[in-house]
Amino acid sequence: MTQIDKDIALVSGPPKDINNLQKIATIIGLSGLMILVLAAFNVNFPNKGIWLSIALGAIAAGIILFSKGAYGDKQEGIKNDGVWFKSISSRGFVGWIAGILMTGFYIVLYFYAGLLGLNPEGENTGVIALFDPLSRVLSGNAASQWFVYGTLYTVAIIAFGIKFMWKYRHNRYERLRTFSVMFFQTGFAFIIPELMARLNSDSFKLPYYDLKNVWPLNYYNFEQYRVDDMISAGNIGIGLLIFGVASILVITPIMTYKYGKRWYCSWVCGCGGLAETAGDAFRQLSDKSTFAWKVERWVIHSVVVFVVVMTTAVVSTYLGYDDQKYWLTKGTFLIGVVALLTILIGLLFFFRREELKKDAKVGAIGYFVIILAMIGIHYSTGSKIFMFEAETLRSTYGFLIGSVFSGVIGTGFYPILGNRAWCRFGCPMAAIMGMQQRFFSKFRITTNGGQCISCGNCSTYCEMGIDVKAYAQKGQNIVRSSCVGCGVCSAVCPRGVLKLENGDDAGDSRYDSDPITFGNDGVKLNM
Amino acid sequence: MKHIAIIGNGISGVTAARHIRKLSDHKITLISTETEYFFSRTALMYVYMGHMKQEHIQPYENHFWKKNRIDLKLGFVSRVDSDNKKLIFSNQEELVYDDLVIACGSKPNKFGWKGQDLDGVQGLYSWQDLELMEKNTQSTDRAVIVGGGLIGVEMAEMLLSRGIKVTFLVREKRFWGSVLPKEEGELISRHILSHHVDLRFETELEEIIPDENGRVKAIKIKNGEEIKCQFVGLTAGVSPNTAFLKEGAIDLNRGILVNEYLETNQPNVYAIGDCAEFHQHPTGRKNLEQVWYTGKMMGETVAQSICGNKSAYQPGIWFNSAKFFDIEYQTYGWVWAKPKENEAVLYWEHTNGKKCLKLIYDKNDLSFLAANVFGMRLRHKVLDRWIKFKVNIQYVIDNLDEANFDPEFYKNNFKVIRRSFNENIRNHSIIA
């Protein structure tokens, strides 16, 4: 035995094959996709409405039939056979091809929409023209690349959502949660904003507003053109503006206190919705190492600081040069931001000192000082916006975070980095709720006494890269800022060890652990 | 600072090492001949089925051992010289210890069947067994599993995941008949059958028949029937892996004999986990306990003793769990296959035949004794408290919701269960 530790060479085995129904489903789905590709290469389809329906219908039907082939004749239960044998789900050749194609799609979508046939001056061509009829039905306008993307996004969440519900049909938590993201995507993200656009006229104009898309995920929500639109649209507009502010300052804290951030991340959010449905096959690819966790903490909290600074800069700029128009003055706004941040940091250090690791303290205080200094410089000098132009900050954020991180890397790299890379490393909304979830929430994943066998299923299938078993095998509850509450760790646990719960309170008992296996009465501890 | 040598890097040895490190600065050497890094033995099946890879079933990252100053040593101990406190390895290397913990685990039972050592015939316990199984099942159409216990059903699930047909020989009238009571055994038997396993009760292996290359080509059962197969899984339990101690001075029976402090007859030599056999079990349970959780507890206990806080092994209320294909099982307290004289039984089964709950209580004082649950999850800490404090069975029935550990939004059946149990309890008391 020279190489005891080597991985087994797995060369064959049925779990990676697909059955006949799945082959047929693949043909149907790919032919739907083919129509879109042909359109993108400027094949001019007649009766665009019909061809679009055929294409979308075939894609959805392909996905759903494929799921039937996968789960239809199997009993209810966990369906992870062969996950690490299949090329697509184990970073194999097919996985890489899928990743490259999706990344390419995102690059074209964000930066070269002209290639898809976008023509803001006149008639659309290409694949965007194919979507014109549907767009006209909904909003009355021609399609844009964002409409094409929104439609495909919604179809993906619905079709893969059905797949996910089929896969977890024994698990009511998963079914309800998936139904919820399908509903919010279809209704709130897709149909309602398009219909709202119908109400617009020359005298009345609402911004395109996906109501569930909360700042800072929706980083542009308080940009001047949107705020101006809302103010000029009377009571409805003002209502929307107040809702936008309340979403992050009132609704989010209350919901997160009661249920943890899962109320948003895995029940409502569109990014989360796509990750949980289309991205489900890639959840095991998230990096579980403590090193990755460390990178995660620094990167995601840096994005929070970036979005806070950027938004503060942008808002204070337009408040500043047009101070007749707004009720809020630039000075009051900046003082308000400083006061809010001071209160939050104060609460954290007052109530949860013991729970803060050293790097968290360094990071929190360091970033707090930097933000105060930037606002201070700005407040005293007045002319320059922080050290940078607000517009530079805005466009840089939009490019780096809004497009490259959340789209190109976040989704394009599903088959390489796992399905929640954006949610884990980049999403500022997730970070803010995460901080609250870690320190001021009733939510926790309870470990069931001493029943853990350290098998590793929970950690492997955690899309957020949390090493769940590290807690479970110590009899410790899992209280982690990144947990989106998808419930899959609990589902795949073969011994019934994990339960997502909202406890009676948010007190210190959440953090308790059993230093000795529960049920071992012999060891008397005086450690 | 002592030098603690630990033979075996399974859950028992690793738990001992971790706790010795928590409590002291002793030098720790963790010896294994199996794998460089600790892995979860209970998760081997998931590697074969493609749910996980080897790295996923390792509970600690590779840098953990260095950080915690636990030296890992790959090597086979061929002899323990307890007089000179010395280990002799198969390559003649020697290692001197101050305290020795033997946690060398088990090996699959072979009961002297004809053909039991043929190619394509194996048990499933170690990493090497898994590698062998991978190799042995490459071109297998039908497999036969001998022995209806936990490893047997896991092996059936593994083989089916690769599209291999399975014949499952069980000596008893139902699956795991030595442990499970009739109703539960039948429930699981039905479930195994529903997965298209050719499950045969009261069937024993006669012999394993080789082809011209010395590889299994069929088996014969006691009634003379021959079953063609290319793989035979021997899963009729495990026994302590103590062959390397046969020459030494450490007392052995089936396992390494220990007292309640996990001490062997030799000074400074302890045995824990699967390989340890009590002269008399501290709580009256069986003298060999080959379970993940008890191995963990013995590791924690021996660490205390080695670090100066001499502690007897004193496990609390028994618990265990398993998963049979899609049905989870938990047990709390001791549910006997046949109820004892003083025990009364409450049993409820869902109409779908995949869920059940059994409560055992004392007929005389109505105290709650034990529970078996299939297809539902119960809360360990609540069940433990109820059993430990001998609460009244009526209290248990009335407060089942407190013990619910199913995921949120699951429909629970406690209302129906309560009604059924209350009715049963009335009937019991009328009979009494």
Verbal overview:
The complex is a heterodimer of chains A (527) and B (432). Chain A has helices at residues 20-40, 48-71, 93-111, 126-130, 132-138, 145-167, 172-199, 224-232, 234-259, 262-265, 270-277, 290-321, 330-351, 358-381, 390-409, 414-417, 421-425, 428-439, 457-460, 468-472, 488-492, and strands at residues 443-447, 498-502. With 527 residues, chain A is mainly alpha-helical. Among the domains of chain A are: 18-74 and 112-192, no CATH class; 290-419; 428-511, Alpha-Beta Plaits (2-Layer Sandwich). Chain A has a two-stranded antiparallel sheet with strand order 1-2. In chain A, helix 12 packs antiparallel against helix 15. Chain A starts with 19 loop residues before the first helix and ends in a 25-residue tail after the last strand. Residues 1-13 of chain A have low confidence and may be disordered. Chain B folds into three domains: 3-107 and 239-306, 3-Layer(bba) Sandwich (FAD/NAD(P)-binding domain); 121-236, FAD/NAD(P)-binding domain, CATH 3.50.50.60; 319-431, Enolase-like, domain 1 (2-Layer Sandwich), CATH 3.30.390.30. Chain B contains ten helices and 25 strands. In chain B, the strands form seven sheets. In chain B, strands 3-2-1-7-19 form a five-stranded parallel beta sheet. In chain B, strands 9-16-10-11-12 form a five-stranded parallel beta sheet, with helices on one face. In chain B, strands 21-22-25-24-23 form a five-stranded antiparallel beta sheet, with helices on both faces. The radius of gyration of chain B is 23 Å and the shape is globular. Classes of the chains: A mainly alpha (527), B alpha/beta (432). At the A-B interface, helix 7, helix 19 and strand 2 of A face helix 1, helix 4, helix 7, strand 21 and helix 8 of B.
Quick tags:
heterodimer, A: mainly alpha, Alpha-Beta Plaits, two-stranded antiparallel ribbon, flat, B: 432 residues, alpha/beta, FAD/NAD(P)-binding domain, Enolase-like, domain 1, 3 domains, five-stranded parallel beta sheet, 10 helices
